[in-house]
Specification:
By secondary structure, this protein is an alpha+beta fold. It contains four helices and ten strands; from the N terminus they run E-E-H-E-H-E-H-E-E-H-E-E-E-E. The chain has helices at about 50-65, 80-90, 125-130, 150-155; strands at about 10-15, 45, 75-80, 110-120, 135-140, 145, 165-170, 175-185, 210-215, 215. Helix 1 runs parallel beside helix 3. Keywords: Signal. This is SCP domain-containing protein.
Length: about 220
């Protein structure tokens, strides 16, 4: 679904600045409203069921298309709990990461987070921008090009992340919309590559040995 049209093409992104982030993949916040602001008025909040399905499909498409190929990439599934948390944070209209402690759930101590900001874009554009960071990432050396950002991509392509949940809010007062995705369990651990290179589905983890579809290990 394409949101209200606008000629603004520049989309700002922010990458995790936590200990989990691989060295050389950190990115500063390009635009961050001040901390502690009250919840702002919004014109539109939330995602339709069709948009949720599209977000999931888009992520899985990119996960199945990594290069070099991944031997242990599992298929993502939607999780309503972390989706609610992502939506709650998007509704704050603050373009900055919330504390990792606030993203903890009963199931995961570490939940990853990708964010994007823009106006008038389809959600696919944001996801594709995260994936496009792969051109700056060298899987063999586990390095990101100097001055580039790779952390959104490495989280998107984190093989052992099993669940995703996202939120979207149009922040009327700020004049932009915010798209937030949470990933459980989170990835981007220092010195660990996002996946193990090899023939697709040749090293599927327990719980994901239900076959191989679109180069992804299926539940089973």
């Amino acid at each position: 679904m394409i949101r209200a049209s606008c000629l603004l093409l520049l989309v700002f992104q922010v990458s995790l600045g936590l200990a989990h982030e691989p060295e050389g993949m950190l990115a500063g916040v390009l635009f961050a409203p001040s901390e502690g602001r009250p919840k702002r008025d919004v014109t539109v909040q939330g995602l339709t069921e069709a948009e949720k399905a599209n977000i999931l499909d888009r992520h899985n498409m990119h996960r199945g298309d990594v290069s070099p190929s991944a031997s242990n990439m599992v298929v993502l599934q939607w999780n309503d709990e972390i989706a609610k948390d992502a939506q709650d944070w998007a509704d704050q209209c603050i373009f900055a990461h919330n504390p990792s402690e606030d993203r903890k759930t009963d199931q995961w101590d570490w939940v990853g987070q990708n964010m994007a900001m823009g106006y008038g874009h389809s959600l696919n554009i944001y996801i594709d921008m995260w994936n496009d960071e792969k051109k700056h990432y060298n899987h063999a050396t586990h390095k990101c090009d100097r001055g580039a950002v790779c952390g959104h991509y490495t989280q998107l392509a984190w093989a052992y992340t099993e669940f995703i949940g996202c939120g979207w809010t149009d922040c009327i007062k700020e004049g932009y919309d915010i798209f937030v995705c949470h990933y459980g369990p989170g990835g981007n651990y220092a010195s660990v590559r996002p996946y193990v290179e090899g023939t697709s589905c040749s090293r599927c983890p327990a719980g994901y040995r239900g076959g191989c579809a679109d180069n992804l290990c299926q539940v089973g």
